[in-house]
């Protein structure tokens, strides 16, 4: 199978993030958002929420990417996210 340079670069970037354990959402904006919603939370609770949110999003985007691949596309689209969420039972 022959892949273009763009696909190879995209695959290497995906692999880099899959192997990474660092948080990808900037800490301060995420903390501000959570603190605005719940001002009583302790800092370790905010960090736990961030880790859970990122884990959820990573899995959602993995499923979204599979939907795009199944549709013979390399670019994800909102309809891929909607389909992934529907398959997961998150949306009617």
Automatic annotation (TrEMBL):
* Principal cellular location given in the protein's record: nucleus
Q: Which InterPro entries match?
A: H2A/H2B/H3, Histone-fold, Histone_H3/CENP-A
Name of this chain's protein:
Core Histone H2A/H2B/H3 domain-containing protein
Classification via PANTHER family: HISTONE H3 (PTHR11426)
Recorded hits in Pfam families, A to Z, give: Histone
- Which PROSITE patterns does the record cross-reference, listed alphabetically? HISTONE_H3_2
What family classification does the UniProt entry report for this protein?
Belongs to the histone H3 family.
Cellular localization per UniProt: Chromosome; Nucleus
Provide the Gene Ontology terms for cellular component. nucleosome; nucleus
Keywords of the record, alphabetical order, are: Acetylation, Chromosome, DNA-binding, Nucleosome core, Nucleus
Q: List the top taxonomic levels of the source.
A: Eukaryota, Viridiplantae, Streptophyta, Embryophyta, Tracheophyta
Which parts of the sequence belong to the Core Histone H2A/H2B/H3 domain? Answer: 13-87
- Report the domain of life of the source organism: Eukaryota
Output the Gene Ontology terms for molecular function: DNA binding; protein heterodimerization activity; structural constituent of chromatin
